[in-house]
Amino acid sequence: MMIGALFPACYSWDIAEVSPRAFIEEREPENVRVQMREGPKIAFENPEISNDSIVGFTGEGQGRLALSEVTELEIRRFSGVKTGGFVTIQLSLVAAFLAVVIYAQPHYRGL
Predict the structure, then answer these.
(1) Residue 21 and residue 54: Cα distance in Å, rounded?
(2) What is the pTM (predicted TM-score) of this model?
(3) Rounded mean pLDDT of 81-109?
(4) CATH number of the domain at 10-79, out of 3.40.630, 3.30.450, 2.30.30, 2.60.40?
């Protein structure tokens, strides 16, 4: 379970270079995060465009936000750099642990 909790470290949020409407309609992303004109960022799962609004699931249930209130749309992308760093750190920790265990073992000499 612990490793599954760390997989989000392999992703980052990047700003979409096209309009929120065009991006959601063309790419059908699983997750987006939007910056409201006056307010916090809101993450939507399975977003869709309905009339002039983004509709999808938020942390509080079904959500709807007018496109006119969106100033920026972010998308989750796989980050090779973050994943490489994560794997390197994990392998280093395992190697250090094994070195300590091996070094701590008593060394017997022949009788």
Answers:
(1) 8
(2) 0.61
(3) 77
(4) 2.30.30
